[in-house]
Write a structure and sequence with these properties.
Two copies of one chain form a homodimer. Chain A contains seven helices and seven strands, in the order ααααββααββββαβ. With about 170 residues, the first copy, chain A, is α+β, with helices and mostly antiparallel strands. In chain A, the strands form three sheets. The first copy, chain A, has a three-stranded antiparallel β-sheet with strand order 3-6-7, with no helix packed on it. In chain A, strands 1-2 form a two-stranded antiparallel sheet. The radius of gyration of chain A is 16 Å and the shape is globular. The N and C termini of chain A lie far apart (about 40 Å). The mean pLDDT of chain A is about 90.
Chain lengths: ~170, ~170
């Protein structure tokens, strides 16, 4: 069923957020951007989503100030990079992923998240219990957990087989 | 464009979460459940969404163990109530709503959230900086902020004009 893009009469912040990031696939695109994906072709190969939908979602996220489209370094390509507004979505993704790991995967994590500086596991992806600080995603190291699928051969999946910092560009 | 319900090849927790709560409207239904909405007719009047979509989403959330359908007290009606798995979604909603208030509404909150016990405002909706404790949503008091729409006359909007605890049943 076709639904309008906005939530009429839902003046609250949640509804505004969902107008921007509540479309199908949108938060997976944002997740991939945290993994360091910047190229259209890499989003496409990793997400296996229809091209038209990917293009539309990237446009929506750029219009909404979550991503910025910019020339890639040393290349004529363009790439999509999280803005500060986009990086501020980390607590949302962190909460969703922590909830799903606990509730839907029975704790069998696809990824482990650690504080890059000290190696402490970050169950909430946000705070280091050793250093007693809030962690920017740039300081978060992700590594495959028992639930990770290590058989995929696209560039994003290959890059994510080894421990890597969030937001570090892939390629 | 029609998309499958599942995210093929996206084994991660985020994708699993979004299969369950990433459909359009679903998180607004969950938000309403935190506001204390339990009746089908109240969800319908407050969310202004198509009946068929509401019924389908309530079914999905019940199947997924986020809501449970149970007989209402002192009534032959049935109602939808958050399970512990559903209540565990509070950090997700809190993060989305905090992000949108900051980034999209320029800080003009629709609602303020306070620790019911001490009255301290909870910018992250999760932790009381005065009591230094993590707050269960049951201990959170919501009240209209400068961005609230106070003109609506459905039972949910009317109940939410006065300060009330999250999860306290409406009617």
């Amino acid at each position: 069923m076709a639904l309008g893009k906005d939530y009429v009469n839902q003046a609250c912040a949640m509804a505004r957020a969902l107008e921007l990031v509540g479309e199908r696939w949108t938060l997976l695109i944002v997740r991939d951007a945290f993994y360091g994906v910047r190229r259209y072709s890499d989003f496409l190969a990793h997400l296996h989503m229809p091209r038209a939908v990917l293009a539309e979602r990237l446009h929506l996220l750029t219009e909404g100030g979550v991503l910025v489209k910019q020339p890639a370094e040393n290349s004529s390509r363009e790439e999509y990079v999280l803005t500060p507004r986009g990086e501020a979505l980390w607590p949302v993704l962190a909460a969703l992923s922590a909830w799903a790991t606990q509730e839907l995967l029975e704790g069998e994590a696809s990824w482990f998240y650690r504080h890059a500086e000290c190696g402490t596991l970050l169950p909430d992806r946000l705070t280091c219990t050793t250093c007693k600080v809030r962690i920017h995603p740039r300081e978060v190291l992700m590594e495959p957990g028992p639930g990770a699928d290590l058989t995929r051969t696209d560039p994003v999946s290959v890059a994510c087989r080894s421990p890597r910092r969030l937001l570090q560009p892939i390629r």
